[in-house]
Design brief:
The protein is an alpha/beta fold. It starts with a helix and ends in a 19-residue tail after the last strand. The chain folds into two domains: 64 residues, Chemotaxis Receptor Methyltransferase Cher, domain 1, CATH 1.10.155; 203 residues, Vaccinia Virus protein VP39 (Rossmann fold). 42% of the residues lie in helices and 20% in strands. It is globular. The site of S-adenosylmethionine (SAM) has 25 residues, from loops.
Amino acid sequence: MPLSADSFRRVAELARRETAMVYEPGKEYLVEARLLPLARAAGCADVDAYLPRIFSDAVERQRALDALTINETSWFRDNSPYQAFTDVVLPALLEARTATRQISIWSAACSSGQEAYSLAMLLDQHLPSGWTARITATDVSTQMVERVRNGRYSQVEMNRGLPATQLVKHFTRVGAEWEISSKLREMVHPRQMNLAAPFPPLPRFDLVLVRNVLIYFDVETKRDILRRVHGVTAPDGYLMLGSAETSLEIEQYWQRETAGRVQLLRPQSTSRSTAPPIPATALTGA
Ligand SMILES: C[S@@+](CC[C@H](N)C(=O)[O-])C[C@H]1O[C@@H](n2cnc3c(N)ncnc32)[C@H](O)[C@@H]1O
């Protein structure tokens, strides 16, 4: 039986409440495609029959929410942000952090970790000796966080944007998969975190990447996340959004700088604790 309208509404409400992801009517096929394998694995004939399990069993609910997230990612995705990192962001931070010799990065909504590990590869290449870097990699999906922790990728995933030189340098083959080196894994600290919920205590970050995730949220949620990210970014730090997210109007918290084809956002010096929220109507991009 195809997914009923009522089941779709209940799943969409759950996804919005738990992750802020918006499933508009018309996405019934997507919800069904994502949940049917879980329904079958749980011994249910269809998704309608599976729904009571989601609502009564927290483990099954997390499994369903994980399945509903869209985890599309690749190594060095879009390339130019990584070029800007090497050419502009990292040199500026190396100059500004000589006292501590520490760099702190947050890959928020990291999916299976390609974003965090791509940065780790660049840091391994360009960070002077005596410096340390810590990359916090978070995602709402526990399954994705586990994947970052395991640091193992299929051949298909390896083929998506990873230069051969980096493969040779940082990966070893384990059966049908490729495992990332412990050196890079030590730099990356995965943890489960919902961007749409109040942040747990976080360090001050020099660079935050919130790429290709705001597109799934409504205007109010985007506004709130960008305000809270401002609060955990160093005053001379940077924020990078995804290429489809650059039209967001964020002037109240962030000012734009360009680095080649990339937009870098720098925190406005507005008082962190008292800055009023951006009006919802201002955030119409993406
Ligand atoms: C399309 S991927 C983007 C991955 C990576 N940032 C990139 O640009 O390649 C979006 C990720 O956002 C995560 N996500 C969705 N809602 C989230 C939320 N409320 N909090 C944290 N992560 C979320 C999904 O689980 C998914 O892994």
